[in-house]
Amino acid sequence: MLPCIEARHLTLTFKPKNRDRVTALQGFDLQVSKGEFLSLVGPSGCGKSTFLNVLLGLLKPDSGELNLNGKQIDGPGPERAMVFQEFGLLPWRTVLANVELGLELKGVAPSIRRDRALELIKLVGLENFQSHYPHELSGGMKQRVGLARALATEPEVLLMDEPFAALDAQTRDLMQAELLQVWERTKKTVLFVTHSIEEAAYLSDRVVIMTARPGRMKNILNIDLPRPRDYEMRLTPEFNDIKAKIWNTLKDELGAKAAGNGI
Amino acid sequence: MNGITNFYREREQAILGGGFILLLILIWQAVPALISLPRGLALFFTTPVEVVKSFYQLVVKNQIQSHVYVSAVEFVVGLGMAILVGLPLGLVMGRSKIIDAMLDPFVTAFNATPRLVFLPLLILWLGIGIWSKITIVFVGALFPLLINTYEGVKNVDRVLVNVVRSFGASEWQTMKVVVLPNSVPYVVVGLRLAIGRALLGVVVGEFFASSRGLGFMIAGAATNYKVDVVFVGVTIFMGLSLALTHLVKRLESRLSRWRPDEVKTF
Amino acid sequence: MNSVQRRPAMAFKSFLSDHQRLLLGTVSVIGVIFLWELAFTYVIPLDPFFFTKPSLIAAAFREQLVSGSLWHDLAISSEAFFLGFGLAVIVGIPIGIFMGWRRRAEYTLDPFFTALYASPLVALAPLLIVVFGVGLTGKVALIFLLAVFPFIFNVFAGVKCTDRLLVNVVRSFGGTEKQIYFKVILPSILPYIVAGARIAIGRAIVGILVTEFYAASEGIGFAISRFGDTYRLPDMFAAIMVLMIMAVMLTEGLRKLETFLAPWKAGQEAR
Fold first, then answer.
1. B128 lies in some domain
2. C242, C261, C229, C15: which is closest to B121 by C-alpha?
3. In sequence order, which ranges of A22-159 are alpha helices (DSSP H)?
4. 108-167 in C: which are within 8 Å (CB) of B?
């Protein structure tokens, strides 16, 4: 079966101001199947967010191939949407207007996009807040708006860049459960970047562990836990084994990164 | 007793502030009655009551209306031109790094220099007709508008631009959906500052290059020791300035309903 | 640390991109001067009663420099400037602190000062000149009036913004009022004082110019006005540019100082 997303030998460098050029990704390979929930974990700066941005079409790789359904990715497109860590809601727009944003930019008629937006607002449980402004919402609610907005344009692929990192622990747990519910209902391909091993293991079908900068795929683990998953699964020994496996692969990279930084 | 304390507590700000101003006016009015002024100073002294009387006289004798009209025209036209030029230019400078870099030395130099320094030159070029004043008003009001628009456009949140670009927005759409709404509060602040500068331009322009207008009236009155008329003019300017600033501040708060924080600028 | 050996060509290229803004700005200014000179030398006939060109301005500038008239004019104007400005600093800062520290003081004084600050106080210039005459006193009075308010309001804002947490920290270590004042408040308001100074400079220069245009026999404002009356355009442009350069140096210098004192404050909105 043709992989939904295929990255071959992706390399990307960039030059920060007043510093030497940095290699974010080096010969990165990955294949993602349709409908899969895939997490990327790795040390800070290993290029996982960079990869997501290349997938989104906001960054261009220096070399290598990145294909979606067999076609080269060449800029942003309607099949992909991102949920941002910092939420990225337009503060001067209500929740409803924010969710409509993607559809509005594509020129969808007002009545159609309004209905679609309301559907999604219901899906994420914010029906009573459609006329609120972002600054009136909690972090978890803001991210639900972000999720609704990303889903509004009906993308095939959902890119999530540490979406729950800015939330407190309890909200985070709640949001993870909600995300899984939404995913089961909408059947998108999800690429999820996170620092949390537990989060990656809990949510995903597979977990990609990346090396320290320059980023490459170090290992992929299959998460063979049954779905739908619930909170109690996190307390089982099987879950701990999975976490231990991820950690063992990851810790060498963390050590390598620390050594590289002269810590 | 309790009622009075509560009344005071609720309106403490207004009572203290307003009371102070009232006190100053009363003291001012009372000075000639309290101390006998030396002959020289008595010539220059006026009281609030006399100022009000003068104002009434000027209005009744229709001596002030034409001045007000001239000053108003200079203000409105000059400010209008500054808005028409400053906003688009600020937008372009904010979005284009190259244009920004090329214009920046000039903007910085002209912004740091009081526009007043160009007045003799403007008089040379445009004479003492209405256009030299309009130009001074224009140049004075231009820079706050230009610079604040520029800042508003530049300070747009990177994340928001990425969000919109990720939906495939063109440059024009990005402007419309993110950059422009984000810069509105900045532009309004610029407008508030520009109004102050514009009024200044009217006053100063009319001191030196005029045969009409409120500033001219003030200058002429001063030379003729008609201090009460001077204060009529000054008070009118003061009142206009306060009224306009208040209006713009109201506009600012209406447009900033979505902002959780307070933006304080001088 | 690996350092890469750069060839001179690569180093030059990265210098270009790193300093892009500065270079573009310089090119732009030089370009304008160049085009100005060329335009009026070869393309447009120069009417000496209306316009002038850079070469003539430079010559006039040199002449003023050599003859000492420039220094003399600047000295006269500076005297009034520093006196008025200094007075504004001495009076404005304490008032600002007083208003910021005591709520009652703020309530009482704020409306009055706001009304004054918002008004074009320059409108009083003719009156001040008539009362005090054409000498130093009138100038200083006007400059003081114009320059004092930025200090009052910026220091006021700075005191109000002082982190109460820091005050409590010092108090919790048993600090006295005086120690709080010197260790917390003064350092906190330093960037605000500098911001106030930056705004006050422009207003003070306006004060100088207004009084010197109106009724003076010396000073740089008077010089500009006189050159205009006698149609000596190159001299006029030269004097204007001297003033511009000084204003820019003072303002940008203070801006740099502000950033140095408070690197955590990104661009302010009002300039």
1. yes
2. C229
3. 48-56, 95-99, 101-105, 110-123, 139-152
4. 108-112, 115, 118-120, 122-127, 129-131, 150, 153-154, 157
Does the pTM of the predicted model rise above 0.80?
no
A128 touches chain C (CB under 8 A): no
Domain coordinates in residue numbering, chain C: 54-261
Q: How much is the ipTM here?
A: 0.82
Mean per-residue pLDDT, B48-64: 88
CA distance B186 to chain A (A): 14
For C54-261, give the CATH class: mainly alpha
Looking at the complex, report in whole angstroms how far the Cα of residue C132 sits from the nearest Cα belonging to chain A.
54
> Which tokens in the block code for residue C65?
């420099």
Q: How confident is the model at residue A16 (pLDDT cuts 50, 70, 90)?
A: confident
Residues 161-200 of B with CB under 8 A from A: 162-169, 173, 177-178, 181-182, 184
- Looking at the structure, tell me whether residues B32 and B151 fall in a common domain: no
Domain count across chain B = 2
Place of tokens 């514009």: B198
Rounded CA separation A113/A109 (Å):
6
Same domain membership, residue B9 and residue B108: no
Q: Is B104–C25 a contact, with Cβ atoms under 8 angstroms apart?
A: yes
Are B89 and B24 in a shared domain? no
The reply to whether residue A104 touches residue B260, judged by beta carbons under 8 angstroms, is no
What is the per-residue pLDDT for A1? 57
Name chain C contacts of B116, Cβ cutoff 8 Å: 205-206, 209-210, 213
CATH number, position B173 = 1.10.3720.10
Q: Name residue A40's beta-bridge partners.
A: A193, A208
Range of the domain at B36: 2-45
- B23 with B67, same domain: the answer is no
- State whether B40 and B67 are in the same domain: no
* Same domain, residue pair B24 and B65: no
State the CB neighbour count (10 A cutoff) for residue A261: 11
Residues with Cβ within 8 Å of B259's Cβ and at least 6 positions away in sequence, in order, are A91, A135, B185
Mention the CATH class of domain A5-79+158-260. alpha beta
